[in-house]
Specification:
Blueprint: H1 6-21, H2 36-45, H3 49-62, H4 68-74, H5 80-93, H6 99-105, H7 111-123, E1 148-152, H8 164-178, E2 182-184, E3 193-206, E4 210-223, E5 229-242, H9 251-275
Parallel strand pairs: 1-2, 1-3
Antiparallel strand pairs: 3-4, 4-5
Helix pairs in contact: 1-3, 2-3, 2-4, 3-5, 4-5, 5-7, 6-7, 8-9
């Protein structure tokens, strides 16, 4: 497999970081000079450990579930810096898939890898096998909103991007994301916050090598009862499949994966903003 030389790839990674830094879980095609597949390949095969570290950090910022397997593999990289970066990225993605691998990494011989793995597990809401903090390990500050009440409205789709099943799934998934932070849909329908979800985009695109499904969502939060719009948050994500592996029947699962990643980003932003109120 031919991969870009380390200097060229580092430049591409910096460009990707600039493109992705302003918007969480944004679409990979926002930075056409670098593909997620290229970054994943570099993490798994590049001879420069610095490039592998940068690749892991970028994958963490992109927060694509598709990158979880290659990041789990990077937990076995010979360089501890790469292993630490991979653990941190897995914590940022938020999927529970790497749970067992992160628990195993708690026994890594390098303290920095153990600390990163413990931090990642805490982000995932797990305390399995964590034990007391090690010397020099910083406390993990979890930013959460005070317990609140949320009335979750039906999901809108003004441009008819998605069918009823996908809209219903978005609402259910949003409920799961907000449930740890407050009561959901109070019986008197007078929630402290009413949350309207909107699917802003759900599309498929094909380039020379990949088929991509992108999703963008917005959450509109109003104070209740009788309040106006309090805040807007949004999330965006893209799922890719190599063109040679693409089949039409894959699209529903890709839409679901992109939708969940976008909703996760928007709900994390919502909770973070509420925590600052």
């Amino acid at each position: 497999m031919h991969l870009p030389s380390p200097p060229r790839l580092l430049i591409a990674l910096v460009c990707a970081e600039l493109a992705f830094g302003a918007v969480s879980a944004t679409a990979a095609r926002a930075a056409p000079q670098v593909r997620i597949q290229d970054v994943e390949d570099s993490l798994g095969h590049d001879q420069s450990f610095k490039v592998r570290v940068e690749a892991a950090l970028i994958l963490g910022r992109l927060r694509q579930v598709r990158s979880v397997p290659v990041l789990i593999g990077a937990l076995r990289d010979p360089q501890p810096g790469v292993r630490s970066a991979a653990a941190d990225a897995l914590g940022q993605i938020g999927s529970l898939l790497p749970h067992e691998a992160l628990v195993a990494a708690l026994h890594d011989p390098e303290p920095s890898v153990r600390r990163a793995s413990r931090a990642a597990l805490r982000r995932l809401g797990s305390t399995d096998g964590l034990g007391p903090r090690e010397p020099g390990e910083a406390g993990i500050r979890v930013h959460t909103a005070p317990k609140a009440s949320f009335e979750i409205k039906a999901v809108g789709d003004p441009d008819h991007h998605a069918g009823p099943a996908l809209r219903s799934h978005m609402r259910d998934f949003l409920v799961d994301q907000l449930r740890p932070f407050g009561e959901i849909d109070p019986s008197d329908h007078r929630g402290m916050y009413a949350v309207d979800g909107v699917i802003k985009n759900l599309s498929q695109a094909t380039n020379r090598r990949d088929v991509e499904v992108s999703c963008a969502v917005q959450l509109i939060v109003s104070r209740q009862p009788g309040g106006g719009v309090f805040m807007l948050t949004s999330g965006e994500a893209t799922v890719q499949k190599p063109k040679l592996q693409w089949r039409p029947q894959l699209r529903p699962s890709m839409e679901l994966e992109a939708l969940e990643a976008a909703v996760r980003g928007a709900s994390e932003d919502l909770v973070s903003q509420l925590a600052r109120q």
